[in-house]
Amino acid sequence: MLELKGVSKRFGGLRALDSMSMYVPEGSIRGLIGPNGAGKTTVFNVVTGAVRPDSGEVFFQGRSITGLMPHRIVRRGISRTFQNIRLFQRLSCLENVCIPMLQSEGPVKSLMGFLGDRERDRKARGLLELVGLGDVMDRPAGTLPYGLQRKLEIARALASSPKLLLLDEPAAGMNPEESRGLADFIARVRDRFGLTVVLIEHHMDVVMRICDRITVMNFGSVLFEGTPQETVRSDLVLEAYLGRSRVPCHA
Ligand SMILES: Nc1ncnc2c1ncn2[C@@H]1O[C@H](COP(=O)(O)OP(=O)(O)OP(=O)(O)O)[C@@H](O)[C@H]1O
Ligand SMILES: [Mg+2]
């Protein structure tokens, strides 16, 4: 579903990605972990076209998407959430979900009323019901509790009907009970929509609970890859975290 081959990206003198390679099979949930500054978010930025790599290739469903414009990548079927919540705070939950639908339809289809307002509204309501936001869909996004805003972000990412969903620390700021709930929610969403998911997360309980495999990054490339059990047993991984005095939360 997704493959990175030797992707490198420098910001000035800093190597954010240093020949990063990763292969994510269809239907899986892949954990992407690593110390702060390891390059995890940069991987998402490269895959979604927000950042152009200096070298290397990104393949999606076997075709190169390297260097494509972000809106084209969305239309191919890749969607993401952000480490810092990026919602239209004053717009309703419904409007927050409708906007990416319009964007993913593209200018021509939107002008021709491809989905139609009513159809779009129906689809957005269905999506919000599904993620458990049915009762609050007319409320401004900014008035929702934090945990619900995180869910709304995921609903919004689903609005463009992606095949690959990239989640950047969706459980940030949640307590262990909330983050377990979110983990189960992500697994349900994957099953319901037949998605492939890449999940950046510092909450190890979330990663351990739902990921098929975990890729551990350090200094812009892969330090370790294995099952959740193999990963927590790895001395290399432990060292990478302890060496930077950051231990995954709730490990
Ligand atoms: N647009 C940019 N311009 C300059 N430096 C950047 C840019 N984006 C990322 N970096 C740097 O690249 C490195 C990797 O950043 P990245 O955000 O990918 O790390 P991360 O693994 O997501 O970290 P965290 O766990 O803190 O979110 C960091 O040193 C960061 O400061
Ligand atoms: Mg990050």
UniProtKB/TrEMBL annotation:
The cross-references to CDD domains, in alphabetical order and at most eight, read:
ABC_Mj1267_LivG_branched
Q: Which protein are we looking at? A: ABC-type branched-chain amino acid transport system, ATPase component
Does the entry feature the keyword ATP-binding, yes or no?
yes
The reply to whether Zinc-finger figures as a keyword in the UniProt entry is no
- Write out the entry's keywords from A to Z: ATP-binding, Nucleotide-binding, Transport
- Which Pfam families does this one have? ABC_tran
Name its species: Thermanaerovibrio velox DSM 12556
**SUPFAM superfamilies membership:** P-loop containing nucleoside triphosphate hydrolases
